[in-house]
Design brief:
Elements: E1 2-7, H1 20-25, E2 27-28, H2 32-44, E3 49-54, H3 62-72, E4 76-80, H4 86-99, E5 104-108, H5 110-114, H6 116-120, E6 127-129, H7 134-145, H8 150-153, E7 159-163, E8 166-169, E9 196-197, E10 205-208, E11 211-212, E12 229-230, H9 233-245, E13 250-253, H10 262-275, E14 280-285, H11 292-301, E15 303-311, H12 315-320, H13 327-339, E16 343-350, H14 357-370, E17 374-379, H15 387-394, H16 402-408, H17 425-440, H18 443-452, H19 456-474
Length: 476
């Protein structure tokens, strides 16, 4: 059996709360979720031929994807699906059906987890996997290999399919409790040179994930209050050594909040130092999960940047967003991080419901005060199935369930909606552009960035990203 995993081209992705010019300038990461499913399938079904086609990383057109499909002739195709690439995922599904009529198509990913029934109803979709896909997809492959009928398929947790009597879906999702049981992502199925990032410290960067879930309660997040599961420090170190053997020297730990369990991070940092192999890495963290001791340990182990979700400078809006933090906690975390010799990346938010223009300006001033190495100003957006979106629907602020409507009928004219009633989308985009200009256009910042450039490659990449920011301001 030939199984192909596909990352669709990103040609028709809908614009997010961050402008496309800035999103496209940051670089492309491997799809770890898909690679975990691929590696688990290889481990459990050694006779299955597994391959990966990352059309986005390789900048392939639909015509080129079609040619690759014709050459591979897969029996089953798994497609990585997010809400923002749903249009391309569906176009890829229909392309598969035209080039390989006998191939079955299975969609999985966060969008499918949110809208499994709507996804299954899309033309050309044979199966959906909602929830974590490693075991569910493997069981689907085994069932198809054995010629299983509806009765066997309906027993697979997290699987949706078209049965003899119509669409069916197992209501329960599969969740891997012991992450150490999973093999590392199947990076051997992709080409490392297809991936890059502008603001990396090393020459060859990749990503790792050491935990899943986040117990925090941020109102705008679709994984809020989810169980935190973690890999052991020893398991993480084994994957790290494998990557270092391949010449990787820069790693982005893409855990939602890796520092939830401080003891585990202390233990991991200690193992990294004792291991004696030097490399660079960066993480994401909440400001209330770090302290000077932990930051010192991270620095010693090779951490060069921490991404913090700051959101706003206004206490009442921090409370509204259920961030569980204060401006003073934020200031402390940034001060401690810089004192430890670690850089900072700040995620800020504008246009929060009821936020005034003065409060938005205060948030920009706060970002300048904090002096992170980089900042990203997004526009507050009620994303699918988040507590923010559902609460606004309950209050009648949002009428129709437009995200569900889009999931059921993905059309290219769909636009993300913002819900600050005092400002139009155009006004919010102008405020957002001005925020980036105010932060990145300061001479103090420009001089500091020039001093940080260590190579011609780094200079060209940073200049390219800076040009994107500048052009966005000029086009306003």
């Amino acid at each position: 059996m030939r199984v192909l995993f596909v990352v669709p081209p990103e040609i028709h992705s809908i614009e997010s709360s961050v402008p496309k010019q800035l999103e496209s300038g940051k670089g492309i990461y491997p799809k770890l979720g898909l690679l975990y499913v691929a590696s688990y399938l290889e481990a459990q079904c050694p006779n299955v031929q597994v391959s990966v086609l990352d059309a986005n990383a390789r900048a392939l057109s639909y015509e080129e994807v079609g040619q690759e499909l014709f050459e591979i002739k897969p029996d089953l195709v798994g497609i990585s699906t997010l809400t923002f690439n749903l249009i391309d995922a569906w176009k890829t599904t229909k392309l598969i059906k035209s080039k390989c009529p006998d191939a079955k198509v299975c969609l999985g990913g966060q969008h499918v987890t949110l809208y499994p029934d709507e996804t299954l109803a899309l033309e050309g979709v044979d199966f959906v996997v909602h929830g974590e896909g490693e075991r569910t997809f493997m069981r689907l492959v085994k069932a198809l290999e054995s010629g299983a009928e509806d009765e066997a398929l309906r027993k697979i947790e997290g699987l949706g399919f078209h049965g003899s009597a119509g669409p069916e879906r197992h209501p329960h999702q599969d969740k891997v409790e012991v992450l150490d049981e999973l093999p590392p992502p199947a990076r051997h199925l992709i080409e490392q040179q297809d991936y890059d990032h502008v603001v990396a410290e090393g020459q060859r960067l990749t990503t790792m994930q050491t935990s899943r879930g986040c117990p925090a309660a941020c109102l705008f997040c679709d994984i809020r209050k989810t169980a935190f599961r973690k890999r052991s420090p020893e398991n993480v170190l084994a994957e790290l050594n494998s990557l270092l053997d391949q010449g990787i020297d820069d790693i982005f730990f893409v855990d939602d909040t890796i520092t939830i369990d401080k003891k585990r991070i202390f233990d991991l940092c200690d193992l990294i130092v004792k291991n004696g192999r030097k490399f660079h890495f960066k993480i994401s963290a909440r400001v209330d999960t770090v302290n000077p001791e932990l930051l010192a340990a991270l620095k010693k182990a090779g951490c060069y940047r921490i991404h913090y979700g700051v959101e706003t400078a206004t206490p009442r809006l921090l409370k509204y967003l259920e961030k569980g933090q204060s401006p003073e906690k934020i200031r402390n975390a940034f001060r401690w991080t810089k004192e430890a010799g670690i850089g900072c990346f700040a995620y800020m938010m504008l246009g929060i419901p009821t936020e005034t223009r003065a409060e938005m300006r205060s948030t920009v001033n706060f970002a300048i005060e904090l002096e992170p190495d980089y900042v990203q100003f997004s526009i507050c957006t009620p994303y699918p199935k988040t507590a923010l979106y559902e609460s606004m629907r309950e209050q009648g602020i949002i009428g129709d369930d437009y995200w569900r409507n889009f999931a059921a009928n993905p059309t290219e004219d769909f636009r993300v909606r913002f819900w600050n009633n005092d400002f139009s989308e155009e006004q919010l985009r102008v405020i957002q552009s001005d925020a980036h200009r105010r932060f990145y256009g300061r001479w103090k910042y420009i001089v500091k960035e020039v001093a940080r450039v260590r190579s011609w490659k780094s200079f060209k990449a940073r200049a390219k990203l800076g040009a994107k920011i500048l052009m966005r301001q000029l086009n306003r």
